[in-house]
Specification:
- This protein has 170 residues and is α/β, with parallel strands linked by helices.
- It folds into two domains: 70 residues, no CATH class; 96 residues, Immunoglobulin-like, CATH 2.60.40.
- The protein has two helices and eight strands, in the order ααββββββββ.
- Strand 6 and strand 7 form a beta hairpin.
- The protein starts with a helix and ends with a strand.
């Protein structure tokens, strides 16, 4: 019984090694692929190198077969609402003044979003007093509403906040 189990495990291990060594290209590690601003282009290049057909344009989704792309990235800065048409992005708010233990909505107009999309958001860089956190993310037709709560008990927000968002667009 133990002998058959060990033989089965050896067979599965051999299949796994064969599958993993089946010609998957390495992620490019030279400029411009290793620059932080080139992450989307790098992943799309990786997908293209591993089986996409058709022409490849840096930063564009591969064509030819239904392969995943990690999507369009956008940025915007200013007061609510801001327009940022992408699946992922960073919004730098204006200087927020949300009082301690309260919350406020920040609206992102995004033509790629519908009410059926799932979006997440996180707080990125901030030098603000207070403690900003994402309380809720709600999608609607062309909008993402991010509820930013200041969970500090005494200090109000007093500076800009980066909102990082990512949406699954189906």
């Amino acid at each position: 019984m133990l002998k058959k189990l060990l033989q089965s495990l050896a067979f599965v291990g051999a299949l796994t090694v064969t599958a993993l060594a089946g010609g998957i290209q390495l992620m490019p590690s030279t400029a411009p692929f290793n620059e932080p601003s080139q992450t989307v282009a790098t992943w799309n290049a990786f997908v293209y190198l591993n089986g996409a057909s058709g022409p490849y344009t840096a930063g564009a989704a591969p064509t030819g077969v239904a392969l995943p792309s990690i999507g369009v990235f956008c940025t915007a800065t200013g007061a609510t609402p801001q327009t940022c048409n992408g699946q992922r992005g960073v919004i730098t708010t204006n200087s927020l003044a949300t009082a301690a233990s309260t919350a406020a909505n920040f609206v992102i107009n995004d033509s790629l979003i519908t009410a059926n999309n799932a979006c997440t958001a996180t707080i990125g860089n901030t030098t603000s007093a207070g403690t900003p956190t994402i309380a809720q993310v709600v999608t609607g037709a062309g909008t993402i509403t991010v509820n930013i709560a200041n969970v500090a008990t005494a200090a109000a927000l007093n500076n800009t906040v980066n909102i990082n968002f990512s949406c699954y667009v189906n």
